[in-house]
Amino acid sequence: MTAAAAGRGHDLWRLCALAWPILIGQLAVIANGVIDTAMTSHFSATDLAALALGASIYVSVFVGASGVLQALAPVIGQLFGARDFAAIGIEVKQGAWLALFLTILGSMILAYPQPFLGIAHASPELTAKATLYLQILALALPATLGFRVYAALSTALARPKLLMGLQVAALVLKIPLNALFIFGAFGIPAFGGPGCAIATTLLAWLSLLAGCMIMRHAPFYRPFRIFGSGFVAPTWRAQRALLTLGVPMGLSYLIEVTAFTFMALFIARMGEAAVAGHQIASNFGAVLYMLPLSIASATGTLVAQAIGARDMAQARRVGNTGIALAALVSLSAGSLVWATRVSIVQAYTPDLQIVAAATPLFVFIGFYQVFDAIQVNAAFILRAYRVALVPTLIYALALWGVGLGGGYALGFDVFGGVPETWQGANGFWLGNSASIAVVAVGLLWYLRRVQRRFAS
């Protein structure tokens, strides 16, 4: 075996060892949404539609804010690779301040969501339920963003197992709490869809408390002096450094999520069955996305640590290995989804009208998996190099232009002549799939340029 082949084999082992607990933790997180969708679908179609609208708006706010906080991961990863432990504790405290600032803005949006809900032209009952859902989640946002600071730290340090344990524990508690607040029991009224938000809020605060206890008492975290080192005020220099990287990262997440958010809002005009079918398809697509995302997170961590250690050859080799692994895994997963799409949809809901609306959309899920794997891994590797602005522009042009703009033109037959098969929700999903392919090609091209620049 050549030295290069041995190096790739070692990189593959390290990626898999880091990726599997990240994957389980992320699946546990996304399974909360699956459980919300499945349990609410057995309450009423109206509550499921309200959940689809409310969740799409909440996810936009949460993902945008947490995306900004993800700037901590490459920064801490490079510091860890350079063995600068004292600076890691300082970055964590500055990240906590940033989480607080983002919470204030995000909570205001969730507390007053009417401008966004108005786009859907939904019924008053549906709007009222979605509004209540979002206002409850405004109380969860401080805890969910605070927990993202702990999550970014643990991932950047290649210590995701305790994080995974907390995420799995929250999932286990989610089911009985959902049942209690959705359907009512022990004198608690049935809240329907908004009951999911109550359960989420309780679990968010419990998770944050547990994360803080781990950072304070676990021996591994003591060298970073996160606790017991005194009060650290926010500084503009530190905040600006995080924002310079984090804002483009957050915008890229926000662009990606809002493409789906506005898809849901526009598809809602086509009726409750259409938006419920879209919710099922997007929910399962998000579950499947966890496969390449976990590999991307692991790849970005190892690339950042290699850069911090000034080993650019290893950084490039690990990045290329991660992309190849994610593409292969996603190709296999997409083929399996295509073959079993009808059974998957029927597992979500017994409503035949919703089944008919959701099943065609799974064709697109099977199609774009490889492109999704390439783009998310390329994006995480670029962030490890602290490069985020150009990727964000690529996301904006592709997802908003090709994806949402093209999907709107197809879905509503804006210019006429669109075959009926590609109208409605199918048109939106076709545009989105094409946009992901464009992003994958664009990010992979730009990554090669960045790798060459750092190697020189």
Short description:
With 456 residues, the chain is an all-alpha fold. The chain contains 17 helices and no strands.
As residue ranges, the low-confidence spans are none
Q: What is the helix content? A: over 70%
Give the topology string: H per helix, E per strand. HHHHHHHHHHHHHHHHH
What characteristic shape results from the CA principal axes? globular
How many strands appear in the DSSP assignment? 0
Terminal Cα span? 28 Å
Structural category? mainly alpha
Q: What's the structural domain tally?
A: 1
What summary fits the major beta sheet?
none
Radius of gyration: 22 Å
Mean pLDDT value: 86
Estimated share of beta-strand residues: under 5%
Number of helical segments? 17
Itemize the secondary structure elements and their pairings:
Elements: H1 3-41, H2 45-69, H3 72-81, H4 85-111, H5 114-117, H6 124-138, H7 141-156, H8 161-183, H9 194-217, H10 236-267, H11 272-308, H12 312-339, H13 341-348, H14 352-358, H15 362-384, H16 389-411, H17 425-455
